[in-house]
Design a protein that fits this description.
heterodimer; A: 817 residues; alpha+beta; 6-stranded mixed beta sheet; 5-stranded antiparallel beta sheet; 32 helices; 20 strands; 11% strand; B: 151 residues; 6-stranded antiparallel beta sheet; 5-stranded mixed beta sheet; 1 helix; 34% strand; rod-shaped
Chain lengths: 817, 151
């Protein structure tokens, strides 16, 4: 009967691993959206060999331990297979090593099943076991190393293989305690002799904590010790006592041991230092959030894209293969997967505790309960740590995480549990007080349940808001896989576009001089300008149907292809402005006075966003501030630019402060233009005489002269190309307003037309301290039949002639296209 | 297209995972039911208790097929005896491990098995005599291989 159950469950586990392997093979093609991608095949070899070993072991268990629990082995196979493929997907090299270790563990299990029952001799040689444990600790303290070359030295290196003694140490502790307590209880010893090893074991824990900075193992030691004493004595006092010890250790550790301090702080408030100490935990939570309910699919989440794409870190989540494998599974299998995983762990725990209760001897009973606690507590510590349920401690997820020592220990525990669950021909040992076992079971299951709730919280409740964080690297990964929408000018000439192969898409800026306006979308420097403000369209999240967004998210975990946005910019005019302005610091604007469409927006000095990777840092600290869009973010004193407006509004040139203010108010200098670009707010530096405005504000005021007194609402993005309806006009953000009386505006414009010119123009100059700026505004006359062009030029030097030269050439060209 | 294939595989994967769990829990549930049925099917051997008052020769016999018989003065007891010297719940007979066990339930006047005072649960066989208060009970257990047949 048991054989059939175990066989059937193994078949389902095999199907799971087969499907997971198939997904792993196809994932690169799915991401690249074509079969022309490097498919993964190597893991099939490992799957075949391990599958063969698993069948052998299945037969061996059925033969040698016919009454052993049929759930334990299939559950362990499913968990370790799942872990192996997840590791393989994160790093094929580590995956192969893990497969090797899994093979070694399975072979060990095979021979362990053939060997005689080790439990009795283990019990007899308990002090040898304890001494062996001591020896391991001392060896690690003396010769400890870390395979990464830094960090806690918790490994022993032997024959080129790193080995983590803290893993088998936990088993040794369980066996020793079970044997010791069973002996003591047999002679009806008092609580004093039960707690005698307290000093020894707590000493162990503290020693590890102090010298090795191994928080995880220390916590597990203390927890295991507490549980074993509680199970043996049945007294709750022991729980309280040990809880007090743990609190003391924690408080002491917090003040005297740095790593405890760090871990505790980044548990309480990880958001403070999200790029530093809590980087790992926040990236882990982002992975959980990205997994959502349904998961991205093995190989389709982002954890490994970091490696091939050179984002600077080997994986998006550091140590995703071992300490953070839970988050990798959460990202790729979703809440659906992790709930299943937790249920598997729960099954393992329940069956182990059942084996404990039915065990024929107290030693076996304590041993099984100890092993169940070990598996349960370690799972809860690391999964809870990943999910910010408890402070993070660097332990492995049993059966799942990368690591030979961890895997071997997990399988050794499995072997012992299988043996204990195969009852000898005896009745279960008498049990006077079953309550401690119920309490233990309830506590472990409650823990599993809490982890599931925390997982749901991060994946579903907090997920969407977490994913918008700027340190979410998935946006950058997405930019490499999903084409971003193009930015085109009014004649559909490309300004910015994505190019390259899927998986290595890059943003190319075809007209780099526009960079202060159009901005950039860069992995390191983020987004700026129109690339930032129009991101929702360019990324396909706005203007695409909700169903498409959902489907693409389900299939690829990414946004749909981006939508093209058409700007009002005319590249012919723009390039003329850039040529004229080159060498100066300043801005030039060409507007349609009635519609507010911005035909040209030049800001100099400019920069080349194609070179951002090399020049980004220098640009950020450049005193000339090329990253600033001077047309909307530069604030300049108005000076004599104001004169024609003052005349038009008040009828005179020299003004009182109150009159000045009314002029500003009238021509819109006190309102910030609404446009899809970052804008600076106008301000008066020292009194009203030094009112500062942006060139865009000046342009809108100038437009009022060409458009019968109406200042238009500015507009730079005119339309978006949606898949459903084609080009759709984008709304104008602001509203036009009456700046001047129409007759007065017309009259002022007429007055400003100089003889021989077809347009009105005005030169302004403003001095502030040592520096001065020159303004030039010009526009088509009010009765002009063509496009009512308005031009504004500002240069950051006392050179009105240059400003006039640039401006008059611009307007002459714009009026005679 | 490929992503759609992978999506199907992903759905199948989740199904496999939950099939595993559902199957495991189904088996657990069946096992639970089986245990219950096994327990229910485990019929104790029938027992006949012959009751006699100390001061009379009148015998009354009672046949039981249940696994637990509580003897006491209380009317709810399986074997209720109107004897002032009995406690409300005086003693019980329990069928365990294929044997009938006698156990005192903390009675005031004590329970005696074959004239010796009962301190721990003891196995009883046919023709054992139990004394509670002023009442004697003689036992006859069906098919009792342990009994010493006196004729």
């Amino acid at each position: 009967m048991n054989r059939i159950v175990q066989g059937n469950l193994l078949k389902v586990a095999g199907a799971f691993i087969f499907l997971q392997s198939a997904i792993l093979t196809l994932a690169p093609a799915a991401l690249a959206r074509s079969f022309d991608a490097p498919l993964r095949w190597t893991h099939w070899i490992a799957a075949l060999i391990l599958g063969f070993l698993i069948i052998l072991i299945h037969r061996e268990i059925a033969e040698r331990l016919p009454d052993a629990d049929p759930f334990l082995f299939p559950t362990a196979v499913l968990l370790s297979g799942w872990g192996l493929l997840t590791i393989w997907r994160l790093d094929a090299h580590l995956g192969a090593r893990q497969a090797l270790w899994l093979g070694v563990s399975l072979i060990g299990l095979f021979f362990g099943l053939q060997a005689p029952d080790p439990l009795n001799s283990l019990r007899r040689y308990k002090y040898t076991i304890l001494s062996g444990g001591f020896l391991l600790v001392i060896l690690t303290l003396l010769f400890g190393a870390n395979p990464m070359g830094f960090g806690p030295r918790l490994w022993l290196k032997c024959c080129g293989v790193y080995f983590q003694p803290s893993e088998p140490l936990k088993l040794l502790l369980i066996i020793f305690l079970a044997a010791y307590l069973a002996d003591q209880l047999a002679i009806r010893a008092g609580i004093a002799s039960l707690t005698l090893p307290t000093a020894v074991i707590s000493g162990f824990g503290i020693l590890l904590l102090l010298f090795q900075r191994d928080l995880g193992t220390a916590s597990i030691f203390i927890a295991l010790f507490t549980i074993m004493i509680y199970l043996a004595s049945g007294r709750r006092r022991t729980l309280l006592f040990n809880a007090a010890v743990i609190v003391c250790l924690a408080v002491g550790g917090y003040y005297f041991i740095e790593i405890v301090h760090t871990r505790f702080d980044s548990w309480i408030n990880p958001w403070e230092d999200s790029a530093g100490r809590s980087y790992q935990i926040i990236q882990g939570l982002l992975a959980v959030a990205n997994g959502g309910i349904e998961g991205r699919g093995l190989g389709l989440g982002s954890p490994n894209e970091g490696r091939g794409l050179g984002l600077g870190s080997p994986n998006v989540v550091p140590v995703a293969v071992s300490d953070f494998i839970y988050t990798a599974i959460a990202e790729e299998s979703g809440l659906l997967g992790t709930l299943g995983l937790l249920a598997l762990v729960g099954l393992l725990l329940i069956r182990s505790l059942r084996a404990a209760l039915l065990a024929p001897h107290l030693f076996r009973r304590l041993c099984a309960a100890g092993l169940a606690s070990y598996l349960g507590i370690q799972t809860l510590l690391i999964a809870g740590g990943n999910l910010r349920l408890v402070p993070l401690t660097g332990v492995t997820l049993p059966f799942v995480s990368y690591g030979g020592s961890s895997l071997l220990t997990s399988f050794a525990a499995l072997l012992l549990l299988l043996r204990i669950s195969n009852p000898l021909d005896e009745e279960p040992a008498p049990l006077a007080n079953p309550r401690p076992y119920y309490t233990l079971g309830a506590a472990l299951l409650l823990g599993v349940f809490s982890v599931a709730l925390a997982n749901g919280w991060w994946a579903v409740v907090r997920g969407p808001s977490l994913l918008t964080r700027l340190d979410n690297p998935r946006r950058i990964v997405e930019d490499r896989f999903v084409p971003r929408g193009k930015l085109v000018d009014r004649n559909n000439s490309i300004i910015d576009a994505s190019s390259g192969k899927i998986g290595a898409l890059e943003r190319l800026y075809a007209y780099p001089d526009l960079a202060p306006v159009s901005g950039y979308n860069h992995a390191k420097y983020g987004q700026a300008g129109l690339e930032a403000t129009l991101d929702a369209y360019l990324r396909g999240l706005q203007g695409t149907s909700a169903a498409t967004i959902w489907w693409d998210h389900l299939l690829y975990g990414m946004a749909p292809p981006g939508l093209d946005v058409r700007l009002t910019i005319d590249l012919t005019l723009q390039s003329r402005a850039d040529e004229l302005l080159r060498g100066y610091s300043g801005a030039a604007l060409v507007l349609n006075a009635t519609t507010g469409e911005i035909l040209t927006m030049a800001s100099h000095p400019t920069f080349d966003p194609n070179q951002l990777a090399e020049t980004g840092d220098a640009l950020q600290s450049d005193p000339k501030r090329p990253l600033i869009n001077r047309a909307t973010q530069g604030l300049y004193p108005t000076g004599s630019l104001l004169d024609p407006f003052a005349q038009a509004v008040t009828g005179k040139q020299s003004l009182t402060d109150a009159e000045r203010e009314s002029v500003y108010e009238a021509i819109g200098f006190q309102r910030t233009p609404q446009i899809q670009l970052p804008t600076a707010q106008s301000f008066s530096a020292v009194g009203l005489e030094h009112f500062h405005v942006t060139p865009l504000q000046a342009a809108l005021a100038a437009a009022a002269l060409s458009a019968h007194g109406i200042a238009p609402a500015p507009n730079i993005a005119s339309a978006v190309n949606t898949p459903a309806d084609g080009w759709v006009a984008l709304p104008v953000l602001g509203a036009s307003f009456e700046a001047l009386n129409a007759p007065i505006a017309d009259e002022t414009a007429q007055r400003l037309i100089r003889s021989g010119d077809r347009y009105w123009s005005h030169r302004g100059r403003a001095v502030e301290g040592d520096s001065a700026v020159a303004w030039f505004i010009a526009g088509a006359p009010p009765n002009w039949g063509g496009v009512p062009i308005v031009v504004v030029v500002l240069i950051e030097e006392d050179n009105p002639q240059a400003a006039e030269r640039i401006g008059s050439q611009l307007i002459a060209g714009a009026m005679n296209p | 297209m490929i992503a759609a294939i992978v999506l199907v595989l992903r759905l199948a994967l989740a199904s496999a995972l939950y099939l595993f769990l559902a199957w495991a829990f189904l088996i657990l549930w069946r096992e639970l039911k089986q245990e219950g049925q096994k327990l229910a099917a485990k019929k104790p051997t029938g027992i006949v208790i012959i009751q006699k008052q100390e001061d009379s020769d009148e015998e009354q016999s009672f046949r039981f097929y249940q696994a637990e018989i509580i003897i006491g003065r209380h009317s709810q007891c399986d074997l209720s005896v109107a004897d002032e010297a009995l406690s409300a719940q005086h003693a019980r007979l329990v069928y365990r491990r294929n044997l009938w066990w006698l156990e005192d339930l903390g009675s005031t006047n004590g329970t005696f098995l074959n004239d010796s005072h009962l301190t721990t649960p003891a196995v009883v066989i046919t023709d054992d005599t139990i004394k509670c208060g002023n009442t004697f009970f003689r036992l006859q257990i069906d098919n009792d291989e342990n009994s010493v047949h006196k004729n």
